Amino acid sequence: MRRGFIVITIVFAALAIPAPAFASLSIGSVGPAVHALQKKLVKLRYLGPSGLTGVYSERTAQAVMAFQGWYGIPRDGVAGPVTLNRLHKANRRPHPGARAHKHIEVHKAQQVLLMIGKGGKVTRAIHVSTAAPGHVTPSGRFHIYSKSLMSWSKPFQVWLPYASYFYAGDAFHQFPSVPPYPASHGCVRIYDRDAIVVYQFATLGTRVRIG
């Protein structure tokens, strides 16, 4: 136990995070350690600047899940020893599959959405939830063909806020539950403010790559 604590202390020190008396950060944690964690997530584009609050909220957990998904760490939204160690080693934004133009990429295996600007750089990496078993989020190349601040889904009888449609009835949209596993009927679920960020980025005609 003592050895594990020493390792965690080193990791927190490397991140300029004061080592707490526990080995992880999760929803409800507050203070300088959380602030330093959020600062690193903002730098790597997993968290928006307004998320730098010093309070480990669901929004922070979503950013942690995006980081975990991208690096193949089990997604639980908790900044534990493995996640903190990998976060310390990470020194650049996620690498997109293409850089030629402004577009959105959804990496289904990682459950991560990348927003790529005109310069070919990732402006945000966001945790998402794609289709649950028995349903399909299509793979391929698409474009945003329709947008609605509040769209009514006839098949599922539910409102879809900040909806940007890319294929048939499938859209990027805000949803209150974006778990660490595929759970949608085919759409790409996005949590809270991140959905607004994607909605603003995904103008009509914006290209979409899903795979």
Largest beta sheet: what is the strand line-up? Answer: 4-9-1-2-3-8-7-6-5
- Which secondary-structure class do the elements indicate? alpha+beta
CATH topology of the largest domain: L,D-transpeptidase catalytic domain-like
Name of the CATH architecture of the largest domain: Beta Barrel
Q: What does the overall shape look like?
A: globular
Terminal CA distance: 41 Å
How many alpha or pi helices?
5
**Helix and strand pattern:** HHHHEEEEEEEEHE
Walk me through what this model shows.
The protein has helices at 2-14, 32-43, 58-70, 81-89, 192-201, and strands spanning 103-107, 112-116, 122-129, 140-143, 146-153, 158-167, 170-174, 188-190, 207-210. It is α+β, with helices and mostly antiparallel strands and 211 residues long. It folds into 2 domains: 2-89, PGBD-like superfamily/PGBD (Muramoyl-pentapeptide Carboxypeptidase, domain 1); 103-210, L,D-transpeptidase catalytic domain-like (Beta Barrel), CATH 2.40.440. Strand 1 and strand 2 form a beta hairpin. The protein is globular and about 45 Å long.
Brief summary of the model shown:
The protein folds into two domains: 2-89, Muramoyl-pentapeptide Carboxypeptidase, domain 1 (Orthogonal Bundle), CATH 1.10.101.10; 103-210, L,D-transpeptidase catalytic domain-like. The chain is 27% helix and 25% strand. It is built from five helices and nine strands; from the N terminus they run H-H-H-H-E-E-E-E-E-E-E-E-H-E.
